[in-house]
Amino acid sequence: MNKKRTPLLALAVLFAGSLSFYSCVPDEEYPLEPQIEFLDFVRYGNDSASFRITFTDGDGDIGLAEEDTVYPYHESGDYYFNCLMPYEYKNSSGNFVPFMILNPDTNAFNDTIASNDSIPLVFPYRIPLVLLNGQVKALNGEIHIKMYAPYKIHPAYRYQCYIYDRALNKSNVITSPEFN
To answer: Is residue 2 part of a domain?
Structure first.
């Protein structure tokens, strides 16, 4: 055998062996329910902010298409918005509590508002459909949520956040750090 070809042949065998080794590495596996983690919160002056989270999903069914408007994703349904962010503020006792607003479904007037006429303030968002390439269904990535004023109502506040996938699996609920 030619001595000049021996290193080239050894390199080709090494490359082929590496390729077959890496092609046997199993794909990342995640739970079917989405899992999210807080990444960061960036304010852009007093009129907007970006809330960023990371996500994983085992079956890759994150997001909704614009035409996803029939049951269970219809506009008046519970799943039209697939990302929900309850707003909490620090009260005078130093505890975080939900900020309550008048429930739009009640007929209460300002002088007759009862405690059951209010609901927590929740910022709703709709994550667009994530399309998969190839056969791997598991997904991971980042979601950037653009928030517009008023994203801040109190001196000390924070958000909770959770998402739903198309199979209506609810993610874990995360809580952001305190913002001032």
So the answer is: no
Q: Can you list the positions of beta strands (E) in the chain?
A: 35-44, 48-57, 83-90, 96-98, 100-102, 118-120, 122-125, 139-148, 157-163, 174-175
Is 5 part of any domain? no
pLDDT in 10s for each residue of the chain, 180 residues:
555 544 444 434 444 444 444 444 455 677 889 999 999 999 888 789 999 999 999 988 999 999 999 999 999 999 999 999 999 999 999 999 999 988 876 655 554 555 567 899 999 999 999 877 766 688 899 999 999 877 778 999 999 999 999 999 999 999 999 998
- 165 located within any domain: yes
Q: What is the pTM of this model?
A: 0.77
How many C-beta neighbours within 10 Å does residue 77 have? Answer: 12
Domain count, the chain: 1
Determine the structural domain holding residue 110 and report its residue range: 29-175
Q: Does 48 fall in a domain?
A: yes
Q: Does residue 45 come out as left (phi exceeding 0), alpha (psi in the -120 to 50 range) or beta? A: left
Helices within 24-127 (DSSP H only): none
The answer to whether the beta carbons of residues 135 and 56 sit under 8 Å apart is no
Q: 60, 64, 57, 61: which is closest to 37 by C-alpha?
A: 57
Q: What are the tokens at 99?
A: 């900020």
CA nearest neighbour of 60 among 148, 9, 131:
131
